[in-house]
């Protein structure tokens, strides 16, 4: 597709009933995930999630303290009929936010001004940042990502702007510049980092040189440590165990033999389709990557809709505890990758 990312050569049209259903399903999935997290914490079954043992107590403490969350994104397979199926939950470091919140809204105003869009992301993000400020004890937040990722920088800049609108003193920070001075986390100016928003996976954060200090720091972190449970593909098996045969779930196990020969094999910690294997009666499709040593989960197959070789995934956003809109990524492959395109949507 020539490297196109924002793609308005087509768009996706819904009716109001379909949007209402997506909103309802998203709210229900969110509640189900919170129950699954509670069950995992109660049973301390963290080994299934490949969480280092040294950080088990941090996850428990974060959950029991109800450390607040900002946002997440459910990835769904749905052709507008029947039931949407949960593919995975991007609960820690979801991206494609600026295009979902702002760019496709501008497209709607320019191209479909008489239509509507399932998109209250911007308003809800500002509102959520405002609510977080009210309980933070300080209005300073450092908003961080890796230095060399243009995509992450775009998402972080947008979230920092939302925080500024909500009254935060929101400061940019590269994760490489987060330091430990022997007593606390600091930035390059040796200013204490009191609240950190990091677009950087928890499983990477705990393995950094300063990782051990995360167990005792008073620094507030968004997303919180308990999101280690929801950003992990082991969640899919935990959900299926709690809600077997649920209309919006696919069977998911830690053993491929539990499925009937067709499955999607997913590394517990992979992102953007890396090391995913799709096995069906028609053959096997595998993506390369650097994941898999942490283990796999095996999920039943919900084939993505095929619109002439265009395979869309619906990303349904949650902000705080509220459904907030959708964004659609489309690929030329049934495995959604980091090269997928973003297409706008509207409803009537």
Describe the SSE topology.
Blueprint: E1 12-14, H1 16-43, H2 56-64, E2 71-77, E3 85-90, H3 97-111, H4 121-136, E4 140-145, H5 150-165, E5 169-174, E6 179-180, E7 185-186, E8 195-198, H6 202-205, E9 220-222, H7 227-230, H8 234-242, E10 252-253, E11 263-267, E12 277-280, E13 283-286, E14 296-299, E15 311-319, E16 322-331, E17 341-343, E18 345-347
Parallel strand pairs: 1-18, 4-5, 4-8, 8-9
Antiparallel strand pairs: 2-3, 2-15, 6-7, 10-14, 11-12, 11-14, 12-13, 15-16, 16-17
Helix pairs in contact: 1-8, 4-5
Walkthrough of the structure:
With 348 residues, the chain is of the alpha+beta class. It has one domain (12-233, 304-347). It is built from eight helices and 18 strands. The protein has helices at 16-43, 56-64, 97-111, 121-136, 150-165, 202-205, 227-230, 234-242; strands spanning 12-14, 71-77, 85-90, 140-145, 169-174, 179-180, 185-186, 195-198, 220-222, 252-253, 263-267, 277-280, 283-286, 296-299, 311-319, 322-331, 341-343, 345-347. The strands form five sheets. It has a five-stranded antiparallel β-sheet with strand order 3-2-15-16-17. A five-stranded antiparallel β-sheet has the order 10-14-11-12-13, covered by helices on one side. β12 and β13 form a beta hairpin. The relative contact order is 0.20. The mean pLDDT is 94.
From the structure above, extract its key features.
348 residues; alpha+beta; five-stranded antiparallel sheet; 18 strands
